[in-house]
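Input sequence (170 aa), recorded before submission:
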Amino acid sequence: MNDESNTDFIPSIEFVRSFQRFVGAVFRLNGQLLSTADLLSKDLEVSTARWQTIAVIRNEPLTVAAIARRLGLSRQSVQQTVNRLCEQDITEFIDNPAHKTSQLVRLTDHGKEVMETLRDRQTRLTAYFTGGLGFSVDEIDRLTDKLEHLRRHAEQIDTSEFISNTDDNG
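Predicted structure, C-alpha cell format:
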C-alpha cells in the first residue's frame, strides 16, 4: 500500500459493514447507469465501452494508449474497441506528428454525428434523472471529489499483500 496508508488502523465491524454497503451501492449504481446507457445507444450500435471511447476523443485525437490511460483500461481492450469503431466508420486512424509508429484516433464525420446524438440523449437523461434528487451543484461536486479520492486511494493498493500463501492450500 502507499506511504499514506495507516496499517495500524483496524476498522470496527460496523465500519466494515457500512463501507461494504457503500461499495455495493456504487456497484449497483454503476450497473444501472451502464444498462441505461446501453439502452440509449442500442439503435446506434454503440456499446457503453464504445461510447466511453468516443467521448474521450470527442475534442481531440488521441493514441490508443492515451485513451486507455484516461479510461483506466488496458491498451489491448481499447485497441479492440477502436478497431470495432473503425469498422463502423465512427473513428479512424491518422498520422501522429509526434510519433511515427503510434497513430492517433479521431472521430469521423459520422462519428461526430453519433457523438452529438449520444450527448443530446445523455443531457436529456441527466436532466430527468437528477430532477428529483434535490442535490445542489456543490453537493454533486463534493460527492465527485470524495469518489475521486477513493478511486485514487484504490489505485495505490497492492493486493498481493492481502493474499497469503495459505490461500493456496486446497
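Checked by second reader. The chain has a mean pLDDT of 90.
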